[in-house]
Amino acid sequence: MAIDYPTQSPVNLPIHLDGVRWLFLTLFVILCALSPVAVVGAAQSNQNSDSESESAAVIELSAPKSVKKLVKKYILLPDKPFANDTARAAFVRKTKQEIKELLATEGYFTPTVTLEDHLTGEKPILKVVPGPRTQVTEVTIEFQGDLAVETPEHRQRIAQLRASWPLTPRKFFRSSAWEEAKAALLSSIAESEYAAAQIISSQAEVDPATASAKLRMVIDSGPVFYFGDLQITGLERYDQSLISNYTPFHKSDPYRRDQLLAFQTTLQNTPQLSSASVSIRPDIASHQAVPVEVILTEAHSQRIAVGAGYSTNTGARGEINYRNYNFLNRALNMSSLLRYEQKRQIFSAKIDTVPDENNYLYSLGARIERTDIEDLRTFNQRISLTRDRTTEKMRIQLGIAWQREERQPVGAADTITYALAPDTWWRYHNVDNPLHARRGHISEIRIGGGSQYVLSKRDFVRAYARHQHWWPIGARDVLFLRAEVGYTLASSREGIPQEYLFRAGGINSVRGHNFLSLGVQEGDAIVGGRTLGTGTLEYVRWFTENWGAALFADVGDAADSWRSFKPSLGYGSGIRWRSPAGPLALDLARRHDTGTLRLHFSIAVAF
Q1: What is the domain partition of the chain in residue ranges?
Q2: Is the CATH number 3.10.20.310 carried by domain 227-298?
Q3: DSSP code of 285?
Q4: 381-414 burial, b for 16+ CB within 10 Å, e for fewer?
Q5: What are the two backbone dihedrals, phi and then psi, of residue 158, each rounded to the nearest 5 degrees?
Q6: Contact call for residues 449 and 467 (beta carbons, < 8 A)
Q7: What is the pLDDT of residue 108?
Q8: Which of 10, 1, 31 is nearest to 602 (CA)?
């Protein structure tokens, strides 16, 4: 089951202001109390568990705190008195050996372990004195193979590899750290060019008398590997060009593991495939052109999805989505959507080509949309042709669209507008988590326009920009900033479709106002204006992994000119939930100028 969240919209609530303040206070007290109670409860539970464990043991453990914790974790102490001296001696002999082996992994090679009797009636004491902890005193890393050939590039890479070695002199020696360091060094060499790199020898020479360790390694990089031909298995319905077009490298390029993994990830996200595995066999005999093995499983070419939900933007919602990933048996991606909402109804269809070797795809789309929002009824028909290029962090779209729109504002004259508009859209994203962003930013710019000399009713140029930024605060909290600005250059808004004008209000805009209620008054309706500017500052406090609360302030307006632009302010608080499909927000916002309170919420589920 997948969950998606459309843009949220407010609904007016007839709540008395004093009552709401009391409700806010109560809500925050409850939310703030949840986290401490859980933490204290967990701490008490752990404390009780430790106490019960201590009381159940028949031997008292005496050791430094860190050593004591380690021994308790891995050494089983008796919970019954010794049956006789033989059992006691066997326990002491076995436990001494186990503790010595355990502490050796942490760098303690000269521990003393004794079992001492205490006063009559009290528990005997298992005393552990770990002794001095071993430190690294010398590190020697030698290289063989192609990497050892004297060139400026090789010297620089070897210097970087040695500089990144974590177990430097004066660091404490630990067996796990030693193994992890060796694995990391080998991985760093093998990830670029040297796919067959291997450790020839490694030795940790420990001197217990001086508590010192000398580390020595010899690594053979082997020869440089170069990418060869693709060996594709598992394709039945599609041509191999579907796969080769996604390849991020060319034949004879030096081997790079990250390119191999990026290739695999791209194929796994391709709708025509359900699984993909990309690998090479690091055989030195084929290093000049190592075959790239691509093992695939095709997905079902047709899918139907049904969804339902509710949003205070557009009311109850139901939809049917049909996709065919092998349209006309040419691996074309055909998608269609029929969505019915109380305030908006949409039917759309689109055909996408397979990305070419330069990662460009082309789309032909058509859409019919009817809306009834803020006393403005529209009926829009649209046809578009676009070229799209998507990389790991960037998307660039260039297209042209023709649309015809019938406008029926309540209390004003009906009009028909149309436009043929070239349009370009650029988006860059760099966030740590697409669903639950805590660090990073997203920026986008869109520019388009039309001319009355080419199938448009009026000359216009529309420009729009938006930026969103997330900053982590402390261990869990997040500070969020959003800003957007738009301007349509034209002699008048008359004759321009609503898509190229601006309205504001609601979630992702100015909360405390109805959805798209900020704009230009035309009769009794609110229509789009030529200017837009909104911003958000929000702080989210996460009490648990999935539940939190937010404080926010929004400001902005949409108007017909900058002179008539009058920013409105909304602020409030809400609840946040990290659902499996993304963050869900339930916000109660206050409109500053009137004191009106509005609730913002939406959820939709696809089956």
Answers
A1: 60-129, 227-298, 302-353, 355-465+483-501
A2: yes
A3: G
A4: ebebebebeeeeeeeebebebbbbbebbbeebee
A5: -65, -40
A6: no
A7: 93
A8: 10
Asked if residue 151 lies in contact with residue 159, where contact means CB atoms within 8 angstroms, the answer is no
How far apart are the C-alpha atoms of 360 and 245, rounded to whole Å? 10
Contacts of 137 (CB under 8 A, 6+ apart): 169, 170, 212, 213, 214
Angstrom CA distances, 186 to 145, 151, 200, 218, stand at 13, 20, 11, 11
Report d(CA 466, CA 479) in Å as an integer: 17
* Rounded Cα distance, 458 and 450, in Å: 7
What is the per-residue pLDDT for 121? 61
Q: What is the pLDDT of residue 58?
A: 77
Token pair of 37 as six digits: 């109670």
Q: What is the 3-state secondary structure (H, E, C) of 64-119?
A: CHHHHHHHHHHCCCCCCCCCCHHHHHHHHHHHHHHHHHHHHCCCECCCEEEEECCC
* CATH fold of the domain at 355-465+483-501: Porin (2.40.160)
Strand partners, 471: 479
Distance in angstroms (rounded) separating the CA atoms of residues 97 and 135: 22
Write the single-letter amino acid at 326: N
H/E stretch holding 46 reads helix 17-56
Run of H or E residues at 363: strand 360-373
Q: What are the strands, taking DSSP E only, across 164-272?
A: 198-207, 212-220, 227-233
Amino acid type, 441 = H
Q: Which fold has domain 60-129?
A: Ubiquitin-like (UB roll) (3.10.20)
Are 482 and 510 in contact by the 8 Å Cβ rule? The answer is: no
Whole-number Å distance between alpha carbons of 357 and 211: 59
Give the pLDDT of residue 180: 95
For residue range 351-383, what is the model confidence (pLDDT) as tens digits?
A: 999 888 888 999 999 999 999 999 999 999 999
Instruction: Decide if 507 contacts 570 (C-beta within 8 A).
Output: no
What is the C-alpha separation between 101 and 80, in angstroms, rounded?
25
Q: Are 227-298 and 355-465+483-501 in the same CATH fold?
A: no
* Residue 542 to residue 376: CA distance in whole angstroms: 40
Task: Tell me how far apart the alpha carbons of residues 203 and 216 are, in angstroms, rounded to a whole number.
Answer: 5
Q: Which single residue is written with the structure tokens 């206050």?
A: 590
Which regions in the chain score pLDDT beneath 50?
Answer: 1-55, 607
d(CA 263, CA 295): 12
Question: What single string gives the DSSP state of each residue in 467-486?
Answer: EEEEEEETTTEEEEEEEEEE
Q: Tens digit of pLDDT for each residue in 402-436?
A: 999 999 999 999 999 999 999 999 999 999 988 78
Residue that has been written with the tokens 């959003």 in this structure: 482
